[in-house]
Amino acid sequence: MAYVSAASVPQPRATGQGEAATATGGRRSLAVALLLGGVGAAVVLLASGRTWTEGRVTGAGGSVSLDAAGGDVTGAPTALAIVGLAALVAVLAARGVGRHVVALLLTLSGAGAATAAFLGASDRAALDEAAARTTGDTAARAEALTQTAWPYVTAAAALLILVAGLLALRYGRAWPAMSGRYERDGGARARGARRVADPDRPEDLWKALDRGEDPTDGA
Q1: How far is Cα 69 from Cα 54, in angstroms, rounded to an integer?
Q2: How far apart are CA 81 and CA 38, in angstroms?
Q3: Which residue, 46, 55, 173, 191, could crosslink 145 as a Cys pair with Cβ 3.0–4.6 Å?
Q4: Cα–Cα distance, 87 to 89 (Å, whole number)
Q5: What are the tens digits of pLDDT across the range 28-76?
Q6: What per-residue confidence (pLDDT) applies to 109?
Q7: Cα 116 to the center of its chain, rounded Å
Q8: pLDDT tier at 22 (50, 70, 90 boundaries)?
Q9: What is d(CA 40, CA 34) in angstroms, rounded to the nearest whole number?
């Protein structure tokens, strides 16, 4: 009988170890998601301001060089990167179904930014508009178009946002919530305030009444 009782003791400890491993995995995935999402959004915002396409147009004054930045080609990656940053912060404040929805928004913003960057790499509309403005001829078209590496850098960075969203969808349930921590801290402060209230001090009595507490409670 004593042997059976001793054999059953380690079971609660194994459960505690499993919970600790889950919490550790949750913190690691959170750190990775924050890193990937933050770096990805920052690079998208930076790369979208660089030159994506280059070309030339021939007018009355000769051949003129043209270039178009990512923001001139498409504003989608920049807008979606900002949405991704907001979702990255909001996913920590949300809980339950709300966290899942925000994580899905984070994933879609990364996918959308990457798609827009890939499509924008071959878009010539911005250079054609620049050619028309430069020559004053609405029928003018850019020639000798070349693409820089920046649209592909933008797309790769957007994929980091996508990965951050996938991590949030997979491991988000194990992540801590900022609102929950705040509520616990607030509750502890409120309990501490009630404990230190001294009924013999008039100022403490007034403060307790202002908080809606009974100053005689626990006396």
Answers
A1: 9
A2: 9
A3: 55
A4: 5
A5: 899 999 999 999 999 999 999 999 999 999 877 788 899 999 999 999 9
A6: 97
A7: 18
A8: low
A9: 10
Neighbours of 167 (CB within 10 A): 23
Write out the DSSP string of 100-161: HHHHHHHHHHHHHHHHHHHHHTT--HHHHHHHHHHHS-TT---EEEEE-SHHHHHHHHHHHH
Can you tell me which residue has the tokens 């998601």?
A: 33
In contact, 156 and 36? CB cutoff 8 Å: no
Separation between Cα atoms, residue 171 and residue 76, nearest integer Å: 28
How deeply is 216 buried, as exposed, middle or buried, from its count of CB atoms within 10 A (0-12, 13-18, 19+)?
exposed
Separation between Cα atoms, residue 128 and residue 121, nearest integer Å: 14
**Cross-strand pairs, 67:** 54
Residue 62 sits at the vertex; the CA angle it makes with 59 and 65, to the nearest 5 degrees, is 85
Q: Could you tell me the CA-to-CA distances from 27 to 21, 70, 138, 154 in Å, in that order?
A: 10, 35, 57, 28
